[in-house]
Amino acid sequence: MTSDSAESMNVLSVDARKMPIIPLLEFFCRKHSIVLTKWAEKVVSKNEEHTTGWSVSGVSNAIYQVPDFKHGGIVDLRQETCT
């Protein structure tokens, strides 16, 4: 059952997987009528305010380049690091 669900999500999100996290969440909310909890809405809103204007570029499946206005940054999701 788990792999069927995962495969279904993969098919639906082929284009969305290349998006930064905020547009990705918005994509799934629009497509699937996902309702966030009040806490999650607060977190997303706060993060969205702090990251407006940032550009996220995929380097690989788990590594992203995220330059902000002051610094450049590399986010490694596997290693859970940000430089």
Keywords:
alpha+beta; 2 domains; 4 strands
Mind sketching the topology for me?
Elements: H1 2-12, H2 21-32, H3 38-51, E1 57-58, E2 63-65, E3 74-76, E4 81-82
Antiparallel strand pairs: 1-2, 2-3, 3-4
Provide a compact summary of the structure:
By secondary structure, the protein is of the alpha+beta class.
Describe the structure.
This protein has 83 residues and is of the alpha+beta class. The chain starts with a helix and ends with a strand. It is built from three helices and four strands. It folds into two domains: 1-52, no CATH class; 54-83, no CATH class. The protein has a four-stranded antiparallel sheet with strand order 1-2-3-4, with no helix packed on it.
Summed up, the domain count is 2
- Helical residue percent band: 40-55%
| Average pLDDT number | 75
Number of strands: 4
Query: Low-confidence segments, ≥5 residues, pLDDT <50?
Result: none
Distance between the termini: 38 Å
What order do the helices and strands follow?
A: HHHEEEE
Structural class: alpha+beta
Shape: globular
Number of helices: 3
Query: Biggest β-sheet: count, sense, barrel?
Result: 4 strands, antiparallel
Cα Rg: 14 Å
